[in-house]
Amino acid sequence: MTDVALLLGGRYRLGSRLGSGGMADVHRAMDTRLQRLVAAKVFRSSADELGRKRFAEEARILAGLSHPGLVAVHDFSADEDELFLIMQLVEGGTLADATDHGPMDPEQVADIGGKLADTLAHVHDNEIVHRDVKPTNVLIGNDGRAFLADFGVSRLADAAGRLTDSGQVVGTTTYMAPEQVSAGEVGCAADVYSLGLVLLECVTARVEYPGGPDAAVARLVRPPQIPQGIPSRLRRGLVGMLASDPKQRITAEQAGDLLNGRTTEIMRPVPPPPRPSPRPPAVPQQRAAQRPPTGSLPAPQSRSKRPLAPIAAGGAAVLVLAALLVVLWPEPEIAEVPPVQGPPGVERLPVDIANLERAVQQ
């Protein structure tokens, strides 16, 4: 057998095994074409044609993503004989390895959580849901950087029915969101909840909901227990991420803002209350009884300035008539009083009175 035949895809020479999962083994490998170290995830389980197509589509989507917190996908194969992913090699361990030594420093957990939340926000912006966020899928490099991995595995596992070698259907119930446990609609909010459980485990070094049917039901009746005394940014983030109702849960972007200290509060918009339908004014009962039947009265007319025109015209006519009367009315005749006779005094009084009476009678 030639050396070329030992190469995965005729290009990648497998080295030591770095880890194993339910469906795949991860190997250190050498890309003989580019002469660089890579991580090769080789799937042990076979998938049907539909599963291979879905896996190939997912691998192409992941190859189009570019973010510092994502393990880059370099190559893939969905052939019948070879089913593998070639990814960026991260030297280090997983977040699960870090929690094996006890609770992590809360400030460090907040820093890691903020970076992972920003990564999830980028993934969600590209309309991709991870659906399998857990400590073993978070890689911690020797330089302290955190990477979110295993997108292709979760998608491929769904396509293949999540079957193990024994044919049993399995799932990571430990970090599932309530809507996943209750077979509800799974969206981006489920990833946020899962990340919240991962960060909570980092702080407490305790699995909040251990695997099993009882644990799956527990999150539906008991909220996660968030410890007191942790940094406020971490506590605010966990409270918002671990809301049971996905509609009340914060987004990955908001979680990143809280955990990274870019904001201290997330204000959700409150929808305005519905406007009540207009109702006609209430009519007193006595007046309503006196009102004639509907349809007997003409429709009320709106106010306008037209009724004032006849009034103004009538007023003008009255003024004109009054002016004509003043001009045309004959002046009254003034009676002539006889001339005064004699000097004023008591002796002339009877004559003056007689003259005044005659003038009035005329």
UniProtKB/TrEMBL annotation:
The keyword Nucleotide-binding applies. Residues 284-293 have a biased composition (Low complexity). Residues 269-283 have a biased composition (Pro residues). ATP binds at residue 41. PROSITE patterns: PROTEIN_KINASE_ATP, PROTEIN_KINASE_DOM, PROTEIN_KINASE_ST. It comes from the Bacteria. InterPro entries: Kinase-like_dom_sf (IPR011009), Prot_kinase_dom (IPR000719), Protein_kinase_ATP_BS (IPR017441), Ser/Thr_kinase_AS (IPR008271). Residues 12-267 form the Protein kinase domain. This is non-specific serine/threonine protein kinase. Keywords: ATP-binding, Kinase, Nucleotide-binding, Serine/threonine-protein kinase, Transferase.
